[in-house]
């Protein structure tokens, strides 16, 4: 319907152009108005019809945005690490925190929870050992006995004993925290001068987190806490990209992939029971793109099996890790074609185009993702440079999962106002906003990324209709079946109406 309207409006403009007398020195204001309206109607939210209360909120937001743009330090023009404390004082940010944002569709398993919780909760549990690697990074393990030494790491120290000998543990706790996040109060440009440096640190963080979060009791509580952070930020649904690793117990015994998935499902059920207005969560099984073909083939087999055993809970499959260093999708084409060959449904949610390496093999991932029938595109940062992929994504309704803060911290963009999603949203390309690895970037939930999208690449113009449409998109482009989407939308609408009436009163 929106395409129809736009065509109709385009026709009006053409008519206007045709009937205007030629040779005018000053352009006709009516023509100008028509062109402006046409563009406004094409952007995200441009076709949304607003209620009276929403219009009232719209006026309020417009004023807030004008004031925000007058701030001496405009947060979206700065690195997020420097902007965060400014964003926290922004009235728009506090409004976005209250806003029901729908679903978080692009979040990874081990970056859901604020690192302070990990340090204050996980590392304070009994039997927690830590060692220091040759590279000054840390590793953890929980064990009932003294664990065997790890190569390239100092002897294991029981944290309980280490802390007992200290008068003040603040410094130790802060240094552990600093190992588990990229966030820093130093100058980010100096600490992370290149993509290689920031990705190396990123990978060290995952290794440091590993022994903490794959310990069964922590694993459960970590996920519950992750859901809490999303729920507290007023999102109601999650699609979590999860590696489903082996989870271990204190005696060193381990659980398999199916156990891990089942545990996610049980904790999700528990969370829903405790918070009935939370809609739920689904898992996208992920595998590192650095693996070889036989490992990938096994992973796809495993994914098909899990999908059969957990059809309601396992949403699909994806590859993770740095695209520029990993293998391209095309390399795995045989493994990734197995489901179609066997007539088995395994939806894909590929990361693609998280790169600025134009013209490389990795840069082909966008087209290959679409060829492989991906349901959504993770990041799609390079989409503007692929007109065919862009067109296909639009026509097939393959939404792009835009994660602004991630793109900035991982050094694809400096100033949010120049983010390529601005162009996509100016023509209402299917887009959702998400947070990727919020804890590692020093963010949480969705609000910080909504802020960057709304204030940064949204510009002055878009207001409430823009926000409404991206929230609705997160349900419309979710992996939920049509009937579940309707239920989720109804729940969201109730929250939205309450939000609008509370703000405008
Ligand atoms: C960690 O959090 C869990 C779940 O909220 C709680 O039961 C436990 O007592 C906490 N442990 C510590 C050491 O803070
Ligand atoms: C230490 O850093 C070097 C250089 O970045 C890297 O090649 C090596 O794998 C790292 N070692 C460990 C144990 O992470
Ligand atoms: C512990 O040390 C930190 C600084 O390292 C300091 O800010 C804090 O006040 C100290 N706490 C106590 C209880 O002395
Ligand atoms: C990680 O922790 C170790 C030990 O506490 C510390 O020496 C090191 O500086 C920390 N690394 C970072 C990046 O903060
Ligand atoms: C693929 O990788 C796995 C795990 O690293 C290894 O065990 C296996 O030998 C590799 N297979 C081939 C064919 O290289
Ligand atoms: C493409 O994916 C959708 C959604 O998972 C599925 O319904 C459809 O059958 C798939 N088509 C092909 C050709 O694989
Ligand atoms: Zn990601």
Detail the topology: elements first, then pairings.
Blueprint: H1 2-19, H2 29-42, H3 52-69, H4 80-88, H5 91-98, E1 103-108, H6 115-120, E2 128-132, E3 138-142, E4 157-158, H7 159-164, H8 170-179, H9 188-191, H10 195-213, H11 216-232, E5 237-242, E6 247-248, E7 254-255, H12 257-274, E8 280-288, H13 293-309, E9 314-320, H14 333-342, E10 351-352, H15 365-371, E11 376-379, H16 387-395, E12 399-402, H17 404-409, H18 421-425, E13 431-433, H19 447-457, H20 464-476, H21 482-504
Helix pairs in contact: 1-2, 3-21, 5-19, 11-12, 13-14
One 2-acetamido-2-deoxy-beta-D-glucopyranose binds at residues 340, 345, 347, 373, 375.
Summarize the entry for a quick read.
With 505 residues, this protein is of the alpha/beta class. It is 49% helix and 11% strand.
Keywords:
single chain, 505 residues, alpha/beta, TIM Barrel, four-stranded parallel sheet, 21 helices, 13 strands, 49% helix, 11% strand, globular, disordered N terminus, binds 2-acetamido-2-deoxy-beta-D-glucopyranose, binds zinc ion, adenosine deaminase, ADGF
Largest sheet: 4 strands, parallel
CATH fold topology of the largest domain: TIM Barrel
Provide the helix percentage: 40-55%
What structural class results from the helix and strand content? Answer: alpha/beta
Arithmetic mean pLDDT:
93
Q: So how many helices?
A: 21
**CATH class identity of the largest domain:** Alpha Beta
Strand content: 5-15%
Radius of gyration of CA atoms, rounded to a whole number: 24 Å
Shape: globular
């Amino acid at each position: 319907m929106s395409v129809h309207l736009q065509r109709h409006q385009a026709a009006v403009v053409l008519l206007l152009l045709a009937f205007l007398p030629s040779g005018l020195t000053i352009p006709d204001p009516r023509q100008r108005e028509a062109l402006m309206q046409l563009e406004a109607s094409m952007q995200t939210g441009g076709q949304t019809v607003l209620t009276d209360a929403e219009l009232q909120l719209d006026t309020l937001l417009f004023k807030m945005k004008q004031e925000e743009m007058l701030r001496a330090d405009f947060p979206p023009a700065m690195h997020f690490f420097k902007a965060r404390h400014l964003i926290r004082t922004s009235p728009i940010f506090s409004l976005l925190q209250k806003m029901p944002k729908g679903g978080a569709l692009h979040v990874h398993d081990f970056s859901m929870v604020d690192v302070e919780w990990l340090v204050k909760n996980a590392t304070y549990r009994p039997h927690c050992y830590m060692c220091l690697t040759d590279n000054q990074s840390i590793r953890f393990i929980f064990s009932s006995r003294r664990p065997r030494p790890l190569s390239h790491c100092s002897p294991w120290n029981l944290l309980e004993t280490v802390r007992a000998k200290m008068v003040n543990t603040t410094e130790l706790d802060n240094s552990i925290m600093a190992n588990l996040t990229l966030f820093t109060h130093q100058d980010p440009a100096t600490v992370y001068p290149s993509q290689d440096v920031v990705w190396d640190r990123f990978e060290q963080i995952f290794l440091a987190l590993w022994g903490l979060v794959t310990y069964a009791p922590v694993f459960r509580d970590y996920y519950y806490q992750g859901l809490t952070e999303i729920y507290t930020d007023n999102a109601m649904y999650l699609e979590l990209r999860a590696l489903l690793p082996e989870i271990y117990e204190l005696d060193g015994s381990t659980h398999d992939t199916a156990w891990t998935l089942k545990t996610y499902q049980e904790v999700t059920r528990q969370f829903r029971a405790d918070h009935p207005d939370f809609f739920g969560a689904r898992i996208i099984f992920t595998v590192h793109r650095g693996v070889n073909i036989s490992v990938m083939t096994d992973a796809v087999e495993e994914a098909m099996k899990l999908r059969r055993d957990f059809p309601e809970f396992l949403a699909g499959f994806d590859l993770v890790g740095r695209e520029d260093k990993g293998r391209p999708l095309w390399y795995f084409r045989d493994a990734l074609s197995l489901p179609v060959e066997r007539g088995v449904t395994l939806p894909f949610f590929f990361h693609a185009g998280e790169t600025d390496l134009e013209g490389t093999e990795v840069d082909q991932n966008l087209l290959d993702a679409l060829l492989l029938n991906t349901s959504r595109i993770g990041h799609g940062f390079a989409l503007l440079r692929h007109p065919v992929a862009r067109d296909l994504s639009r026509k097939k309704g393959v939404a792009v999962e835009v994660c602004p803060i991630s793109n900035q911290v991982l050094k694809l963009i400096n100033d949010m106002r120049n983010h390529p999603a601005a162009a996509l949203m100016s023509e209402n390309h299917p887009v959702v906003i998400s947070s990727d690895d919020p804890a590692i970037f020093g963010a949480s939930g969705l609000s910080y990324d909504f802020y960057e999208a709304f204030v940064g690449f949204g510009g002055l113009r878009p207001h409430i209709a823009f926000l409404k449409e991206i929230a609705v998109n997160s349900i419309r482009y979710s992996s939920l079946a049509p009937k579940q989407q309707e239920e989720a939308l109804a729940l969201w609408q109730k929250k939205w109406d309450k939000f609008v009436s509370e703000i405008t009163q």
